[in-house]
Amino acid sequence: MAKNAGGVLLPVSAEPGKGDGEAALFKGSAMTRRGAVAALSYMSCSVLLVMFNKAALSSYKFPCANVITLLQMVCSTCLLYVLRRLKIISFTNSEPSVPSDSLFFVPFRILLRTSPLSLSYLLYMLASMESVRGVNVPMYTTLRRTTVAFTMTMEYFLAKQKHTPPIIGSVALIVFGAFIAGARDLSFDARGYAIVFVANITTAVYLATINRIGKSSGLNSFGLMWCNGSISRPVPLRFNFILHTS
């Protein structure tokens, strides 16, 4: 829960059993109007982000994917800072454990604890950004759907988590469809495909790290995004400085 300027508690995420009188969109579904709006907003932002990155890196031949990554991190961190300063959102699953005037909003020990997650997030961002450059958008979205196979493999080796045969069959069908689409891709680029699969691996590592570290940190999705941006942002900034001065 988070407090707004008027002191009214705002839910960070929907709690089970509390639909606030909103009717379910489908009979037997737990999705509410708020959840549908959030899902559609996420879908729209994701599509626009891919299109923007593809246009900047391919159509306009922008050479530095790390610069775009840095700017996106700065924008997201600044937005989170403003929302947290106005007490519209919270960074923790419960009431904040640090004063609202704290510089980082979360204890320094939690920043250190989430540093592996932030580093995996940085690798995921850089690989995903670069992977857009070498393939067309339809093939990019198709190949990125195979991320679930890499995630399942990573979860098995890290957490020994096993999935049911229907789930494995569905994932296998997705991977098979991606190979069929790739075989008929007239603009096939081996390097571009390889980078997309590297992006899939880094995404799987990031999701597995969230499962192991994120849940035990006591931070919600806003808090994890804040830690990722705070820790990861200096790395591309330093890298850009070295490139500029060399």
Automatic annotation (TrEMBL):
Sections of the chain in a coiled coil: none
Keywords tagged on the record: Membrane, Transmembrane, Transmembrane helix
Keyword Chloroplast: no
Domain Sugar phosphate transporter: 44-204
Segments passing through the bilayer: 35-52, 64-83, 167-184, 190-209
Membrane topology of the entry: Multi-pass membrane protein
Highest taxon, organism lineage: Eukaryota
Pfam families reported in the protein's UniProt record: TPT
Subcellular location: Membrane
The keyword Magnesium appears for this protein: no
Annotated GO CC locations: membrane
Location (main, coarse): membrane
PANTHER family found in the cross-reference section: SOLUTE CARRIER FAMILY 35
Name recorded for this polypeptide: Sugar phosphate transporter domain-containing protein
Source species: Aegilops tauschii subsp. strangulata
